[in-house]
Amino acid sequence: MKHARTLAVMLAAAATLSYATAQEKSDDTPLNTPARYLFPDDYMADPSAHVFEGKLYIYPSHDWESGVTDPTDGNHFNMRDYHVFSTKDPEKGKVTDHGVVLSLEEIPWAGRQLWACDVAEKDGKYYMYFPAKDKNDIFRIGVAVADKPYGPFKPQPHPMRGSYSIDPAVLEDNGSYYIYFGGLQGGQLQRFRDNKAIECGTIPGKDEEALPARVARLSDDMLEFAEEPRPVVILDAEGNPLKNGDPHRFFEAAWVHKYNGKYYFSYSTGTTHMLCYAIGDNPYGPFTYQGVILTPVVGWTTHHSICQYKGKWYLFFHDSTPSGGHSHLRSMKVCELQYNPDGTIRTIAGEPR
Ligand code: FUB
Question: Which of the four CATH numbers 3.60.15.10, 1.20.210.10, 3.40.50.300, 2.115.10.20 does domain 2-337 have?
Answer without folding.
Answer: 2.115.10.20
